[in-house]
Structures are given as structure tokens and as C-alpha cells.
Amino acid sequence: MSKNIRKKNIIVSVVFWISIYLLIVLAPLIVLNTGELPKGSGFWWDFSMALGFSGMAMMSVQFFLTARFKYATAPFGIDIIYYFHRYLAIAAFIFISLHYFIIVIDNKEALGVINPFEASWYMTAGRISLFLFMLLILSSLFRKQLKIKYEIWRVLHILMAVTAFILALVHIKGVGYYISGPEKQWLWTTYTLFFVFLVFYIRLVKPWIIKRHPYKVIEVTKEHGRSYTIALKPEGHAGMNFKAGQFAWLTLKDSPFHIKEHPFSISSSPSDKNRIEFTIKELGDFTKTIKDTVIGDIAYLDGPYGSFSIDNYSDAHGFVFVSAGVGVAPIMSMLRSMVDKKDKREIVFLNINNNLQSIIFRNELEEMQNHLNLKLIYLLTKADNSWQGERGHITKELFQRILPENFTKLEYFICGPKPVSDIAQKELYGLKVPLSKIHFELFDMV
What we know:
By secondary structure, the chain is an alpha/beta fold. The chain is built from twelve helices and twelve strands. 46% of the residues lie in helices and 17% in strands.
């Protein structure tokens, strides 16, 4: 597929899915303003209702965004979708909070008593829903600061989200304002059924499908930089077809029904269908247990996902890779794929690490220079005095030294912690590298 055709298809897909999203969010406002409308309510009252209904519609989309439907996520990249999910949740919470506080200011009597033992059941349901939604947002934004384990947070996140949404529906039904009439009843019935379908699919159907395609650990390799590579072999099925640079959710030594999956980049080449590898650094509660993995352990994969792949740019003149630490994993997948294909296109690889001892895959990378048109540059941030290569941090001058004359024609792939990715993008923008040629993997989605 040519670059222009691919670009056109992506634009069409992006416009389509954004239009679907806007339709879902705006549908309540369109439908609820048809038919007979309440009289004498006033602007602020109607505005607060519009905010509340829009916030509810946005909440319903949240479940769709995390369902990992590949056709919906492909044009954007699932890492972008997850960030969108996070900020959309904040926007929905603001809408619903404004819905409540506008009523507090404009028509406090409509709220009735606060005491849950005396208040109407549907008003209490609405207040509890808003409170749970607030807890959900705060626990998500500050999970690491609050030191909540990822697995525990995920379970709480799901329970709070489902409960908050159900209570909000109960509140809407109990209040009954703006939802009389068959078309309005059908609207909220559709939202409810859509919500039930998503929960059923995400928590029952999808884990069941994944469980039918197990993998077995066949090798565990200790790498530099406190990292480990685990190799998996498909058990009783053909394995996973993926593009070099993509990632998957990994469930290790547990059932996919137990919500203990974690996203990791694939570090192996797509060429070997009987072996798939993940290179994982000891960073958190789960990753610190990777070293305890033993051969024969059962694993499950949900994937592949992501648009971070050179396979999407078959007509590119060449590539520039920038990685930091274990961000080298998807880059290795792409380099190994190029070795397998005997791809001789120009490659510049800026590999950032603390010191020589922390460079993952150092020996293999240096050997690759014998098989690829690869210029390998190590940038060490904590190098000792004996180091004669690049040191310090990414700068515009560094890129000017290492990039070839045709640097604006190359495709750029950046993977690493957000500060590294941000500064790399900033300096490349400063060098007038076209935005369309800079691709980055958001290193921390959760």
C-alpha cells in the first residue's frame, strides 16, 4: 500500500470514529430536546441537565475505549486511546459536577434533603455516583503517589466505574426529568444495553477467548539494566501475528479472568511464529517478580496492539530510532525484523542509558552493524571519565552531529520515559523534521 493511500485510509478512519464518538455524546441532547419539553425551567436548569446527560454519555463511551476493539484503536494507537480515556474521564467528571453545583446555586430546593435516610432513593443514588466518580478520578491520577498496587487499583477502578454508572442510570430514571416519551426511553435503554454488552464482552467473552489460546514459557534470560527477557511458545494454536514494534497485554501464571494483565512491548521479530519475546525491566510490583518466572509457566496474551511499527512505512527512505532504557524493546523487534528481511535501508539508532553496564542487548546491537546499514550511537547520562562517546542528555546539537544530510526524509521512532520522549520530539521539531514523520510510544499508559 502506498504512503498516500495509507494516509487517506487513516484520515477516513479517524474522521469516522470521531464522528461516532460525537454522535454518542450528543445524542442525548438531540433526542432529549425533541417532543414535549418541560416549561418554565429556565436557562441554568436546562444547562445543568444538558451537562449531566452529556457527562453520562461520555461515561458510557469510557467502557468502549478500554475494550480494545482493534478496528477502533488502530487509526490512533491504543496508547493514545488510553490517554484520551483518562482526560475524557476528567472532562465527564467536570460536566457532571457542574450539573450538580449549578443546581445547588440556582435551585437548591430541587435537591431535597442531604440525609440519605430521609432523601429520595434516586437522589441518594446520584450523590453516591458522583462521589464514586470522584474517587475513581483521584485514585487514577494519583495511584502511584498513593502507592496503590496496579492489580488492586484495576479491580477497584472497574468496581467503582460500574457502580457509579449504574447508580447514575438509577438517578436519571428516578428523577424522570426530560426522559418522558418513547424516543427518550429508547435512548437510555440503548445506553444501558450498550453498557451491559461491553461489561459482558470485556469481563467474560474476551477472557474466555484468550484462555483458549495459552502460551508456555520456554526461556527466561537475564539482561543488563535489571531486565529479563521471557520467551513464550503457543500451546495448541498458531500463535500471534504481529507487526514489529507492537505490544500485547501479558497475563503470567494466572487466569485472564483475574484482571492481572500488564502491557509490554514485544522484543522479538515477527518472523518466528513459534516464539514471542518480551523484555521487561524491574520497575514495579509485578515486574519485580519476572525473575521468578520458570520454564513451563502458563501465560496468556491479548494483542497485538499499537501503530508503533516500521511495517507501516514500507516506502520510507530509512529510520531514526531513539530509545531510553527498556524502551529498546520495540526497537529491537523492528531491528530484528530488518535483519530477517535483509533490509539495507539507512538506520540511525540513538540508544540512551545510564552507563555501559545498563545497555540492554549491547552485544547483539553491535553485531547487527555487520548485517544492517546501522549507525549505532550510545548516549550515556552517567558515564565515567573513561567514556569517549556521547554523554549527557538529548540536545539539538547532538541530533545535528549524528543525523545524515537527508534527515528530514527519514521516519523517526521514539520510545522511553515521557521526559526523554518529550525532549527528543522538541529538538526534532526544532530541526524542522515534519511532524508526520515523528512516531512515539507512550511509555506509561497506566
